[in-house]
Amino acid sequence: MMSSHLTWMIIRNNNAYLLKKRNIKKPFSTEPNNLNNLSSYRYSGLIHKKSVGVVAAPDNKGFTVVYKKSRSSYKPAKSVVKRTMKAGPRRSLYKLKRLLRANKYRTDLTKFLCIAGSFTQSQCSVEVTEATTN
Amino acid sequence: MSLSAARPLISIYNDKNEPLGTTVALPAVFKAPIRPDIVNFVHDNMAKNHRQPYSVNKDAGHQTSAESWGTGRAVARIPRVRGGGTHRSGQGAFGNMCRGGRMFAPTKPWRRWHRRININQKRYALVSAIAASGVPALVMSKGHLIQDIPELPLVVDDKVQEYSKTKQAVVFLRRIKAWADIQKVYKSRRFRAGKGKMRNRRRIQRRGPLVIYGQDQGLTKAFRNIPGVDLINVSKLNLLKLAPGGHVGRFVIWTQSAFSKLDELFGSWRKTSKLKKGYNLPMPKMANTDLTRLLKAEEIRSVLRAPIKQKRSVKKLNPLTNTRAMLRLNPYAAVLKRKAILTSLQSRRKRQELLAKKRGITLEPTAAEARARKLQEQRRAAIQKAKAEKAKKPKVEKEEKPTPGKEGKKAKTPAKGDKTPVKGAKAPGKGGKAPAKGAKAPGKGGKAPAKGGKAAAKEAKVLGKEAKAPAKEAKAPAKEAKAPAKEAKAPAKEAKAPAKEGKAPAEETKKVAEGSPKK
Asked: Which residues does the annotated region (Disordered) include (chain B) (predicted)?
C-alpha cells in the first residue's frame, strides 16, 4: 500500500532517527537497520520492504545478520529474521555475501556489508592480541 | 493506494496476543492519501483553538498625568510626571521606551485566538493521520517502539473495553508487546526547559500508544493512569491525538468495534459515509506511488524514446606510472616486468652468495628454495610409503587407471597459495589414506570404487572396518594442518581444501563402506 518512495518523502526531513550535525550537509540516521548511518532513501532501514542490518552477536563471537522478510511487512514481530555468523572474519563475510546474492536481496547494499566485516575484524584482532600476550 | 485495490484482511488479537481467528477487511480509510502538509496545517490551526487569551493590563503605563515639558528646558521632549517630592516626579512616562511606561502595542484580549478550519480539510487531515497510523515505517519513524507487535493496524478484541483495573491494562499492554513504547515514555520524563516550569507546565514526557475504543465500559479508567496512553472514542477522533505535533504516524491500538466503525464513519470510495453526510474519502493524486515499478513498467517504457547516453570522459591514466593502463596498451609488459623483477632478485642473490663465499658464511636458503625442498622431501616420503603399502596389499588393476590423472590434478591444485601447511596436510592425509584403501587411490580416487561396483563395495566393507583405525590417524594430522592453515593468509577456501583432503579419506571410507556412490 505504502510505497517506499512515498514514505521517504514523508519521512526524509522529519523522523525520530534523523541526526543533523553542524557543517555537515547530509544528515545521519540512527536507525537500527541502516548500514552506513546516512539518512538517505537507499540506506534507510525502515522504508523498504527488504532491509539488512548487521549487529554484533550476543556473545561477541561473530555477528548477526538481521534481515526483513518481504512478505510480512505489516507484521513487525514476524518480519525480522536473524542469522548469526560465527565463523572467522573472511568466512562469515563470504557467507553473508552468498546469503544475499543467492536471494538477490538488496544487491545494492553488498558494498556496505563489508563494513559489517569490520565488526568481525575488530573482534578477531582482540582475540589475536590476547593470544600474543599469553 | 488505488481505489480498486484489494483490501487485505487484518486479524484480530485477543488480550493474550493470540490471533482470534476472526479477520476484518481493512477499512478504506487506511488507503487514503497521506498528506503531511494538510495534517500540519490543520494541526497548527486546531492547536490554536484551546488557547487561553493573555494580555497586559489595559491601564498599564497610563496611570499617570504626565505632560511634556516642551522645548527650551534642556531635556528630551517625552511627557514627564508632574509634581514633586518623589523620585517619580519628572520621570518620563507613557512611552514604550520609558521606564514605567506602557509597552509597544499592548496585547489585547480580543486577539483572534481561535481559527476555524474548513470541515473538509479537517476530515482530510484526520483521514491521512489514520492512514499513516497503519504504515509501520511511519509509526517507527515517529519513534514508537513497535518492533514486536503482531500486526499493524493493531486490532484487539472488545474485551479490553471492559477492563476496570489498571493492572489488567498493564498486563494487556505487556502481552501485546506495546509495553516497550510505554517504557520509553517513562524514560523520557523530564523537566521542561524554560519558563514553562514556573507556569504550571513543569514536567514533560513522550506520547505513548493511543487506544481507540468503540464503547467505554471501564476502559478509560483502566488505562488513564498509564503514562503516555491516550484514549479516544471512535466517533470523536481527534487530530491532535492522532498526529501529535503535527506529525503523522502515532501508534494506535484499535478495539474491534472501533475498527469496524471506521467504514461507516468514512465510507469507501465506492460508498459515501453513513455517519458524515455526503462525505467521501479524498481522491489521491497518484493511484500508484511505487516509482520504481512505474519506471520499469511496460506501459510507460513502450512510449518512451530511447535514452540518450552521454559518453563520459574517462580520466587518462599514465601507463608509465599506472600498471593497469600499461597492460591495457601492451600486455607483454607484464612479462617484461616480471622478468625484470626476477632477474634483479636473482642477481642480488648471486651477489649475496659471492659475498658469503668470500666471508665463508653459509646463507639461509631463500623462501622459494626452502619450499621447493620441502615439497620434494614430502613427495619422496609419500611415494615411498605408498610403495611400501602397495607391496603389502593385493592390487586391483581396474581401479588404478582413473587414479593417476586425478592424482595429478590434485597435486596441482594445492600448488597455489601457501604451500607448506597444505603439503603438511597432504602427507599424513596420504599416509592415512593408503592403509585404508590399499589399491584404492587416495583423494578423489574414492570415486573409482563406485565405478568398480559391488565387488568394490564388498571390499570396501572389509577394508572399511580396518579403515577406521588409520582414519583416526588421518584426522589427527588433519587438525594440525588446520592450525597452520589458519595462520597462513591463504584465502578461506584454500585453507579448507587441505583440511578437506585430510578429512576426505576418513569420510570417504565410511561412505564407501555404506555403499553410497559418489561424494
From this structure: 366-519
